[in-house]
Structures are given as structure tokens and as C-alpha cells.
Write a structure and sequence with these properties.
With about 425 residues, the protein is mostly beta strands. The chain has one domain. It has 4 helices and 19 strands. The strands form 3 sheets. Strands 5, 10, 11, 12, 13, 15, 16, 18 and 19 form a 9-stranded antiparallel sheet that branches. The chain is globular, with a radius of gyration of 20 Å. About 50% of the residues are buried. Bound molecules: 2-acetamido-2-deoxy-beta-D-glucopyranose (4 copies). One 2-acetamido-2-deoxy-beta-D-glucopyranose (NAG) binds next to loops.
Length: about 425
């Protein structure tokens, strides 16, 4: 099988015409967009056209965007964590376990999740796969500076401020499980779906949040999961994503490799790439496992995806609170409700079904685990749950089966009880 490769450096030849409906105008802004594109799209060693429309560039590992960061100019890439606790490979056992006994086991497919671009080639050792940013991607952002950034810190659920009268109608909504304490990592296996998005400027995601500090302007966050985000990617595909910030989503941090920060070491997984297959109602169920943990020697936060694929790390120097430990871990879903036309959005969370529907219909997180002060991976204690409007999206812990700590979450958004 001959991989189809685009060896041209297309980004040098992008025309300067202004896309219709763009939020930018004028040649100065156009130059700014082109400059930003050049910063993001490093010179590829090989390019692979994915059937889903993405172009995956194989970038030399030491040319990745992370090294544009002033703190990281002299950073020596760590190809693997210095400390490799034995529980890291625990995952192999757990991923193959069965669904809860109360559900039909034929529904659960234990196949690996793949990325579509793999059918057309692979990135050689010493390179990393990077989803190429298109000019239109940047033009959809509110500004060049905001491209690849979450819009506000309401993006993190604040389980302590549960005053229902104080929930803004036009906001981010969550359905999460959480624990508070001192943590050095977190893990979960999350069901993968393709929720419908009502408005282009809304999104729906499912993720783990590793948080440090209070909900002030210096909140530290490390995040990973899957999302459908038409504004960011220009389509409705379900994509693997990561995020970080050290100042509550203001000046620092971004999605994926859209700014310098995360250092990728893996040559198989494109962060921001589509994932498939996707679970179906009453049909096959698919899930992904994500583990994030702090290397106690170097202090960097590492991420592992699926069965033993270490993706890379967030250097400790990016953070303030998270240089020591995390104080809050959250697992669950988030949607943006723009309340267009004064009504609640119909953007779905999870599968679009409420948690009481259970396995095969509602989306789940299973094997929620945390890394504690003694650097052991264990079941979290005193798990809380939180949602702003349970009639729109809800969350329910579950005790069926041998899935460890697990819960169902999600919902349809607008419905007779959520007008
Ligand atoms: C990187 O480190 C080397 C050796 O310590 C030093 O000579 C060089 O000036 C440093 N470069 C930057 C950009 O800090
Ligand atoms: C790439 O690295 C892997 C793991 O170190 C090794 O097994 C494989 O042979 C290498 N492939 C090439 C083409 O060098
Ligand atoms: C409501 O939220 C605002 C802004 O987040 C906050 O300043 C205010 O104290 C909150 N009010 C109550 C009653 O919780
Ligand atoms: C994404 O889905 C919405 C409806 O859910 C649709 O209106 C829109 O055209 C889709 N966008 C793309 C790029 O397919």
C-alpha cells in the first residue's frame, strides 16, 4: 500500500484573498494571519492527507511549536518520564474489561480507537504528527490572538458556587464528577460520541480537568478529552484535544499545539485529529483512556492515551500551582449555550441522552482514578457531582458492574423542562 503524500509546502503558497464572511479585513490583518500561520505550521518532513479533510504534517520533533516559548528555548526534550510507576501499564488489563453485567455485553466493542489519517501513511521516528492549521481556521476566531484559546474561565465548573439563581443563561454548562484534595494525576476511560452542535460558536466536549489554585485570575488547568468544536476545526468531527492555561484562560495556554507549551514526543497520534469509530445509540460502544500524571523527579505532567501511548508532557515551568500538585480534579462534559433566540441551545452533551438511560444510550466515564501523595494510582474518595441545570444536562454516579468508580452524564439541552 503506497501512502499518499503531499510533499509540497502548501503554506508558503496560500493566496492572499480575503475569505467571504471573515471577521477580519485589511491587508495588515491579512499579514498578521499569514505570520501566525507560518508560526504554527512548521516545515514538514512529510505531509499526509487524511480522508477526513485534515492534512497531517510530520514535523521534526525539535521544531515543534513548544520551543517557540521563551522558557523552553533551551529545553532538552525528555523522550520518556524519568519515573515510570508500575501502574502505568495497568491500563492494558482495565481497557479490556467488560461492560456492567446488567447490560448486553455484545454492545461493547473492545477495538482500538484509531485516527483516520493512518490509512494514508505514518510519521517517521524523530517527527511528530501535527494537524495543519488552515487560513480559514484562524479567520473563524474572533482575533488572531484568540485563535486556539477557550473564551473564558466559566469554562471550568465551580462546584462550590452552586447557587442556581446565579447561573447565567448565556454560558458554559457542565455535568461533572469531581474530587478535592492533593493530587499528582488522574485517569479515566471515557465513552466517545458525536454530539450535535446547534450553533457554529458552540461546542460540546468530554474531558478530564486537572486544576490548581483557586478560581481567581491565576487558575492553572491541564485538560484532555474529546470535543466537537466547529468554530475551532471547521467541521463537526469528534476530535482528541488537550488544553492548558496558567492564568485562567487569559493570556496563557491554548488547545493542542496551537501555541507553545505541550511538548509532544509521540509519532503516532495527532492531537486535534479526528477519532473513530464513534459509539452509536443501542449499538457498539467505544471509549478512550487518558492518564495524566506528574513525574515526581522533573515535575513535568505527562499524558498517556489508550494502551501505553505516551503522547508527551506539559513542562512544569509553564505553571504556578501545578508545579507542586493539583487541588481539584474534574471528569465530565461541557457545552457552550449561546441561548440564540432566547432559548436554551439544543447542543447535546455526551450522547445527547440523560444519564438514567444507562449503558448503550447515555455516555459514561469509567475507571476514574487519581494519583495520590504517595504516587499511587487509586480510586478517588468522596466524589462529588455537579451540574448547573440538571433539566438540560445531568450526571449520575453508578454502582453497577465492575467498572471501578464510574458515572453517566449528558443530555439533549433544550427540551420541555429546559426551555
Ligand atoms: C542555552 O544554554 C546554553 C548552555 O548553557 C547557553 O550557552 C545558551 O546561551 C542558552 N541559550 C539560550 C537561548 O538561553
Ligand atoms: C522507530 O522506533 C521504534 C521504537 O523505538 C522502533 O521499533 C522502529 O524500528 C523504529 N523505526 C524506524 C523506521 O527507525
Ligand atoms: C454571582 O456571581 C457573581 C459573578 O460570578 C459573583 O460576583 C456574585 O457574588 C455571585 N452571587 C451569589 C449570590 O453567589
Ligand atoms: C455541523 O452541524 C450543524 C448542525 O448540527 C450544521 O448546521 C453544520 O452545517 C455542520 N457543519 C459542518 C461543517 O458540517
Amino acid at each position: 500500500m503506497k501512502p499518499f503524500m503531499v510533499v509540497l509546502y502548501l503554506f508558503t503558497a496560500v493566496s492572499f484573498c480575503n475569505a467571504g464572511g471573515s471577521r477580519f479585513s485589511g491587508s495588515q490583518q491579512n499579514a498578521e494571519v499569514m505570520k501566525h500561520l507560518k508560526r504554527l505550521n512548521k516545515r514538514p518532513i512529510r505531509s499526509i492527507q487524511s480522508p477526513d479533510g485534515d492534512i497531517i504534517d510530520c514535523i521534526h520533533i525539535s521544531h515543534q511549536p513548544a520551543f517557540d516559548h521563551p522558557f523552553l528555548k533551551n529545553h532538552t526534550i525528555q523522550m520518556r518520564p524519568n519515573y515510570h510507576p508500575n501502574w502505568i501499564n495497568d491500563m492494558n488489563i482495565k481497557v479490556t474489561s467488560s461492560p456492567p453485567p446488567s447490560s448486553s455485553s455484545s454492545l461493547y466493542k473492545d477495538k482500538g480507537i484509531v485516527q483516520l489519517w493512518h490509512v494514508n501513511g505514518e510519521c517517521p521516528n524523530g517527527t511528530i504528527p501535527v494537524r495543519r492549521t488552515k487560513k480559514e481556521d484562524i479567520l473563524r476566531a474572533t482575533s488572531v490572538k484568540r485563535y486556539g484559546k477557550k473564551k473564558s474561565f466559566t469554562t471550568v465548573a465551580q462546584p462550590s458556587s452552586t447557587d442556581p439563581d446565579n447561573i447565567s443563561q448565556n454560558s458554559h454548562q457542565h455535568a461533572i464528577a469531581y474530587v478535592k484534595g492533593e493530587y499528582y494525576g488522574a485517569k479515566a476511560t471515557m465513552n466517545v460520541w458525536n454530539p450535535k452542535i446547534q450553533q457554529i460558536n458552540e461546542f460540546s466536549l468530554s474531558q478530564i480537568w486537572i486544576l490548581g489554585g483557586s478560581f481567581g485570575s491565576d487558575l492553572n488547568s491541564i485538560e484532555a478529552g474529546w470535543q466537537v468544536n466547529p468554530d475551532l476545526y471547521g467541521d463537526n468531527n469528534t476530535r482528541l484535544f488537550i488544553y492548558w492555561t496558567s492564568d485562567a484562560y487569559q493570556a496563557t495556554g491554548c488547545y493542542n499545539l496551537m501555541c507553545s507549551g505541550f511538548i509532544q514526543t509521540n509519532n503516532e497520534i495527532a492531537i486535534g485529529g479526528s477519532i473513530s469509530p464513534i459509539s452509536e445509540l443501542h449499538g457498539s460502544q467505544y471509549d478512550i483512556t487518558i492518564l495524566i500524571w506528574k513525574d515526581p523527579e522533573e515535575g513535568n505532567w505527562w499524558m498517556q492515551f489508550g494502551n501505553g501511548k505516551v503522547l508527551g508532557y506539559w513542562p512544569s515551568t509553564l505553571f504556578s500551582y501545578l508545579t507542586k500538585s493539583a487541588s481539584l480534579i474534574e471528569w465530565g462534559g461541557e457545552v457552550v449555550n449561546t441561548a440564540a433566540n432566547g432559548q436554551h441551545t439544543t447542543t447535546q452533551m455526551g450522547s445527547g441522552e440523560f444519564p438514567e438511560e444507562g449503558f448503550g444510550k447515555a455516555s459514561y466515564f469509567r475507571y476514574m482514578e487519581i494519583v495520590d501523595e504517595s504516587n499511587s494510582l487509586r480510586d478517588p474518595k468522596d466524589i462529588g457531582i455537579f451540574t448547573e441545570q440538571s433539566n438540560c444536562y445531568n450526571v449520575q454516579m453508578s454502582t453497577d458492574g465492575n467498572w471501578g468508580s464510574h458515572f453517566y452524564y449528558g443530555g439533549p439541552g433544550r427540551n420541555p423542562n429546559c426551555p
